[in-house]
């Protein structure tokens, strides 16, 4: 169609004829609307009106004088799409694209916020004069430089959806900028908005802090959704605080690291959390100053790792008897230190015959009473002073 005279732009029948022409050309509706606007003008007819007549003509309804007031149906809007269709649209968007879409109107914002934004992993490490974080494969770093700081970030952030239904950031070239502010202040400008994303989730969270920083103590939302977590703190109360932020039940396993050995008094603070009670697996990368009887606290877990200061050979039977009562157990590793090689002494207590000469490990199998399950216990020398007890059912 060529350009039409100005007088015809107010001719209702002529405009509908133009729409009918687009239908006859069998072009997609949006392409047809663009072509229509190019010919008759951008402001002659709203898309909603064009869509109405285009739809009628496609169905063979060619009455140009049809009274639309007889149609009581309200005009359809974007939010009238089915939940299934809206979910398909939002599922295909990465977190950056979702942020733009949710800013379009309040209805979209509420709808998009009702679905989680999932990262494969989020890592945050704070040490003296340096703040480092990682979103999947993209690394960021703020560190002190003179009276200000430098900030390194990916030059181009590429976010793609993985097969595991979460968002994976692809590696890219990094750029470094200099700012006249503290490394912590600059880092929080990026981190604070990240942790305010509604329904933010990660498959793995790593939180490490070796400094005293009130700003970081309160940075995670309450609750924070992580399937697994690694927490390392120099302050034990902060460690328990951050563990308690992770959503109990959603959190399947967690690891904690705390340098000084600690006993049952501090351990009880962890044992009393819902996170510990509902977890499936726990690792303590620290020495626990507890006796063998304290292992009963791990009875609900499928797997756990802990290190203790020392285990006497005669205690190995009690360890076996306690752990063999754990109904959900899959595997256990207990690390301990000794100043001499005790492998043969442990074997003697368990009535296991081992070859003469140096022995680095042996395996003991135990039929659990009133059960068809067998507990397998392997004691292994790792180094001069370090030994492992590996147990599986």
From TrEMBL:
InterPro entries per record: DUF38/FTH_CAE_spp (IPR002900), FB224 (IPR040161), Mos1_HTH (IPR041426)
DUF38 domain location: 224-351
Domain Mos1 transposase HTH residues, every copy: 13-61
Pfam families per the UniProt record, alphabetical: FTH, HTH_48
A biological process term (GO) from this entry: innate immune response
Domain of life: Eukaryota
PANTHER family linked to this entry: DUF38 DOMAIN-CONTAINING PROTEIN-RELATED, UNCHARACTERIZED C.ELEGANS PROTEIN
Name of this protein: Mos1 transposase HTH domain-containing protein
């Amino acid at each position: 169609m060529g350009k039409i005279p100005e007088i015809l732009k107010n001719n209702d029948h002529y405009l509908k004829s133009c729409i009918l022409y687009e239908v006859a050309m069998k072009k997609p509706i949006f392409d047809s609307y663009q072509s229509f606007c190019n010919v008759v003008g951008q402001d002659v007819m709203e898309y909603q009106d064009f869509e109405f007549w285009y739809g009628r003509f496609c169905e063979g309804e060619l009455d140009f004088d049809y009274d639309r007031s007889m149609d009581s149906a309200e005009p359809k809007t974007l939010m009238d799409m089915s939940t299934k269709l809206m979910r398909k649209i939002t599922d295909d968007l990465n977190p950056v694209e979702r942020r733009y879409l949710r800013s379009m109107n309040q209805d979209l914002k509420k709808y998009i916020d009702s679905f989680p934004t999932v990262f494969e992993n989020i890592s945050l490490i704070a040490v003296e004069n340096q703040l480092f974080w990682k979103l999947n494969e993209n690394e960021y770093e703020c560190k002190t430089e003179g009276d200000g700081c430098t900030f390194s970030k990916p030059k181009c952030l590429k976010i793609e959806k993985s097969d595991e239904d979460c968002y994976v950031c692809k590696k890219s070239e990094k750029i470094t900028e200099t700012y006249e502010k503290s490394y912590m202040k600059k880092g929080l400008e990026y981190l604070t908005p990240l942790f305010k994303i509604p329904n933010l989730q990660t498959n793995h969270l790593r939180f490490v802090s070796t400094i005293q920083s009130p700003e970081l103590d309160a940075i995670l939302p309450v609750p924070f959704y992580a399937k697994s977590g690694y927490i390392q703190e120099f302050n034990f109360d902060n460690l328990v605080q951050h563990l308690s932020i992770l959503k109990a039940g959603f959190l399947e396993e967690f690891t904690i690291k705390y340098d000084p050995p600690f006993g049952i008094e501090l351990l009880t603070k962890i044992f009393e959390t819902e996170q510990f009670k509902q977890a499936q697996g726990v690792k303590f990368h620290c020495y626990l100053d507890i006796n063998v009887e304290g292992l009963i606290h791990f009875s609900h877990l499928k797997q756990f790792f802990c290190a203790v200061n020392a285990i006497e050979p005669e205690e190995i039977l009690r360890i076996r008897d306690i752990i063999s009562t754990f109904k959900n157990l899959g595997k256990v590793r207990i690390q301990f230190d000794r100043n001499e090689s005790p492998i043969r002494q442990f074997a003697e207590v368990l009535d296991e015959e081992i070859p003469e000469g140096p022995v680095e490990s042996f395996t003991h199998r135990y039929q659990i009473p009133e059960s068809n399950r067998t507990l397998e216990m392997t004691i292994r020398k790792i180094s001069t002073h370090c030994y492992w007890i590996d147990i599986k059912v």
